[in-house]
């Protein structure tokens, strides 16, 4: 699944006693945390909307590369697990993540395509499935409704390669090959080299596959076990005055509605002195591409350029980002209000090796990460203002790796719906590389106080608040009264039995596992822990059928000059199942015998005092 989330913030050094206004941002970058070492290369990374996910990679075991996975649970990366035990050397692992810890993983071993599925975090991986042989270049995606597709190249196909695809149905763990290849012409070589395929799956379970064939890029939808009869060529015919020559390195992402998608690729144009590569993006609407645009930020045709594989990430509404790199610089282009805006520089990078990646969230916030000129991974965040038509610009540049990296061995980014973003890469010297995952960890979401400002006894009736939105780990709530910490809890309610009477000001501060805080506004808290006072007078004949009268005098004076809540209601229980809610009452008993009249006086804070009077009815 490829729709993710993000944002930006600061950890407050003063933590709980800092004023609310001190919290200016909504997240922070966390430098790369080592997942495993030594490793060979990164395969893939994915994060589901609910914050679960996984990273897959290659690690040498017994002199051969094997597939390992580290799962993301509650914001923490779990110990590595080997997935291909019993197989020969493996390569090209890819992963797709779904809510609840679901994972769909594919890789190549012995020239064959294998898959395994983990239906949920608390369920085991399915047995390895041999899906196709021979096979290479897998790409996998999982819809929010549990439908998965894996596209791959059959190197024994016509012309040196066919693009095939297999589908996993909902609640299933096995993939079934779609009978028809996606190739435009059976005699063409498709899905080989830089024409490898990419697949994205919409919420409705329809897949869109892009691939290179005969020097062009094509897009084709797949409906369950049927391929579309209307494949679309993606190349634009010319770049300005220069005619198109060829295209490759496609990438794709799709909206929740499969009718809409964005496709990016590298295209070359003949400028008179040679062929120049440019990055191109086009929106697919129904069965037709829009005119498309060059998105590499170069502004014209320079005498020389090196354009790497462009990457696209959009959310379910089609908002997102395209990352490109060329001639020593990385660029980011914003897709907002269905418009692809011009790319702007985000940072420098080694020519041909910056390899930037993009992530996007459900709100349209985003992030672009790339390998900088100093061979470390850098990232910049975008914050989308949905109510504004102004196109967002990238925020400050932040390094997230602690050692030299090699993005050619893997650089990926993915986000959840809460704004948390994972950035995976390998770092360190050759032969001693470690897999690391940096993150942009969003601070807890805004929340509110549920308890009102009327009088209460917070020792008996706990203070309550709504839950702050947080997917990566649990939250600790700190209740602050009059600027002082009154208590902490992981629940959304807290009783304060020792709070003195009077009028106070309180708020709640949510703290995540990184120490980031989000606070509610201050609210008045009127505390009245003392019960009211009451006296009872019983008059009347103590005879069956005759009137018994009860008069209650109740008051709720303040204690130590502190305001009290005042008398609320008085309940007179007559001892025979009848009761009167008033300070005065009259009752007639139908039977004789001894009865206990119970008078309960409540104040407006819910405190009560109980008085009993025994009467004998003759």
Kindly describe this structure:
The protein has 3 domains: 15-442, 7 Propeller (Methylamine Dehydrogenase, Chain H), CATH 2.130.10; 455-527, Immunoglobulin-like (Sandwich); 533-617, Immunoglobulins (Immunoglobulin-like, Sandwich), CATH 2.60.40.10. 0% of the residues lie in helices and 50% in strands. The protein has no helices and 52 strands. The strands form 12 sheets. Strands 20, 21, 22, 23, 24 and 25 form a 6-stranded antiparallel β-sheet that branches. Strands 38, 40, 41, 43, 44 and 45 form a 6-stranded mixed β-sheet that branches. Strands 2, 3, 4, 5 and 6 form a 5-stranded antiparallel β-sheet that branches. A hairpin with a 2-residue loop joins strand 27 (320-326) and strand 28.
Give me a quick take on this structure.
The chain is an all-beta fold and 618 residues long. The strands form twelve sheets. Strands 20, 21, 22, 23, 24 and 25 form a six-stranded antiparallel β-sheet that branches. Strands 38, 40, 41, 43, 44 and 45 form a six-stranded mixed β-sheet that branches. Strands 2, 3, 4, 5 and 6 form a five-stranded antiparallel β-sheet that branches. It is elongated, with a radius of gyration of 33 Å.
What keywords describe this structure?
618 residues, mainly beta, Immunoglobulin-like, 3 domains, elongated
Overall shape: it is: elongated
> Which CATH C-level class of the largest domain is it?
Mainly Beta
**Main sheet: strands, sense, barrel:** 6 strands, antiparallel
CATH superfamily of the largest domain: YVTN repeat-like/Quinoprotein amine dehydrogenase
Structural class: mainly beta
First-last Cα distance: 81 Å
Give the fraction of residues assigned to helices.
Answer: under 10%
Beta strand count: 52
User: Which residue ranges are poorly predicted, with pLDDT under 50 across at least 5 consecutive positions?
Assistant: 1-25
CATH fold name of the largest domain, please?
A: Methylamine Dehydrogenase, Chain H
Strand content: over 45%
CATH architect. name of the largest domain? 7 Propeller
Tally of domains: 3
Q: How confident overall, as mean pLDDT?
A: 92
Alpha-carbon Rg, integer: 33 Å
- Count of individual helical segments: 0
């Amino acid at each position: 699944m490829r729709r993710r989330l993000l944002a930006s913030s600061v950890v407050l050094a003063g933590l709980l006693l800092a004023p609310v206004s001190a919290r200016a941002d909504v997240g922070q970058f966390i430098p790369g945390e080592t997942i495993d070492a030594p490793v060979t290369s990164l395969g893939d990374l994915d994060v589901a909307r609910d914050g679960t996910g996984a990273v897959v990679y290659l690690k040498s075991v017994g002199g051969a590369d094997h597939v390992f996975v580290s799962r993301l649970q509650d914001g923490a990366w779990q110990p590595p697990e080997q997935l291909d035990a019993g197989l020969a050397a493996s390569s090209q692992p890819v992963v797709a993540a779904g809510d609840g810890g679901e994972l769909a993983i594919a890789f190549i071993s012995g020239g064959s395509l294998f898959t395994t599925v983990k239906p949920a975090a608390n369920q085991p991986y399915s047995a390895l499935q041999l899906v196709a042989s021979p096979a290479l270049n897998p790409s996998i995606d999982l819809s929010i409704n549990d439908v998965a597709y894996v596209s791959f190249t059959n190197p024994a196909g016509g012309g040196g390669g066919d693009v095939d695809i297999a589908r996993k149905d909902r609640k299933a763990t096995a993939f079934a090959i779609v009978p028809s290849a996606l190739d435009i012409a059976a005699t063409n070589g498709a899905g080989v080299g830089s024409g490898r395929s990419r697949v994205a799956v919409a919420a409705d379970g329809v897949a869109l596959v892009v691939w290179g064939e005969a020097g062009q890029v094509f897009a084709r939808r797949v409906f369950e076990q049927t391929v579309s009869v209307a494949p679309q060529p993606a190349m634009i015919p010319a770049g300005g005055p220069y005619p198109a020559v060829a295209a490759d390195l496609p990438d794709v992402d799709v909206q929740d509605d499969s009718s809409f998608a964005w496709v990016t690729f590298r295209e070359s144009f003949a400028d008179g002195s040679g062929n120049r590569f440019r990055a191109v993006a086009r929106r697919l609407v129904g069965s037709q591409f829009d005119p498309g645009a060059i998105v590499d930020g170069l502004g014209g045709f320079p005498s020389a350029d090196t354009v790497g594989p462009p990457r696209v990430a959009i959310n379910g509404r089609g908002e997102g980002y395209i990352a490109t790199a060329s001639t020593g610089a990385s660029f980011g282009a914003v897709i907002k209000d269905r418009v692809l805006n011009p790319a702007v520089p985000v940072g420098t990078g080694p020519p041909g090796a910056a390899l930037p990646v993009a992530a996007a969230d459900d709100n349209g916030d985003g992030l672009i990460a790339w390998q900088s000129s100093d061979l470390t991974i850098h990232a910049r965040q975008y914050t989308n203002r949905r109510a504004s038509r102004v196109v967002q610009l990238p925020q400050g540049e932040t390094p997230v790796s602690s050692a030299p990296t090699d993005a050619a061995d893997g650089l990926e980014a993915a986000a959840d719906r809460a704004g948390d973003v994972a950035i995976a890469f390998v770092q360190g010297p050759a032969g001693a590389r470690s897999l690391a995952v940096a993150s942009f960890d969003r601070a807890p979401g805004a929340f509110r106080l549920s308890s009102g400002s009327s009088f209460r006894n917070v020792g008996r009736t706990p203070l309550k608040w709504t839950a702050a939105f947080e997917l990566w780990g649990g939250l600790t709530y700190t209740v602050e009264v009059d600027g002082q910490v009154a208590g902490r809890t992981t629940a959304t309610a807290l009783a304060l039995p020792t709070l003195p009477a009077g009028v106070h000001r309180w708020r709640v501060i949510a703290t995540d596992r990184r120490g980031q805080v989000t606070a509610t506004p201050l609210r008045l808290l009127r505390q009245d822990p003392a019960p009211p006072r009451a006296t009872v007078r019983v008059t009347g004949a103590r005879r069956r059928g005759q009137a018994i009268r009860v008069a209650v005098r109740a008051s709720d004076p303040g204690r130590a000059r502190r305001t009290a809540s005042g008398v609320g209601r008085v309940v007179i229980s007559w001892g025979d199942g009848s009761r009167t809610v008033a300070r005065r009452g009259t009752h007639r008993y139908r039977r004789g015998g001894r009865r206990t009249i119970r008078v309960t006086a409540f104040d407006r804070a819910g405190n009560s005092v109980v008085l009993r009077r025994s009467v004998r009815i003759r």
